[in-house]
């Protein structure tokens, strides 16, 4: 698993929230709600983000919060149903993922349960997110590519 430690800048987003289980429900949310809104706003070419705020192993599925968002300029007027969200600048573990929606669950699990404890870092008190900025290199239906980004801080001694 190739993970890079990267300093990322702050990013201004227009986001739409979904509350409920992660997994396949997120794919449906993107397809039925987020992507039609994105096309309507003429923002399909902008970098897109998926932000998970809750640990699905601790938080009840019906209470998990997730934002789908798109990077927007400082002068872009964000209107309902979207709200403004800023992803904080900081040091992040970045893993370039390519696969299916079920594969990404395993990638998150490996990063959080295997890589992070051995990395010399701890999870910072910021949301983890997926950054969709590069096209998938395969034309197989159901595959997508994103960077899994985990906020870091140095391990306390």
From TrEMBL:
<protein>
    <submittedName>
        <fullName>GyrI-like domain-containing protein</fullName>
    </submittedName>
</protein>
<dbReference type="InterPro" id="IPR029442">
    <property type="entry name" value="GyrI-like"/>
</dbReference>
<dbReference type="InterPro" id="IPR010499">
    <property type="entry name" value="AraC_E-bd"/>
</dbReference>
<dbReference type="InterPro" id="IPR050908">
    <property type="entry name" value="SmbC-like"/>
</dbReference>
<dbReference type="InterPro" id="IPR011256">
    <property type="entry name" value="Reg_factor_effector_dom_sf"/>
</dbReference>
<dbReference type="Pfam" id="PF06445">
    <property type="entry name" value="GyrI-like"/>
</dbReference>
<feature type="domain" description="AraC effector-binding">
    <location>
        <begin position="1"/>
        <end position="153"/>
    </location>
</feature>
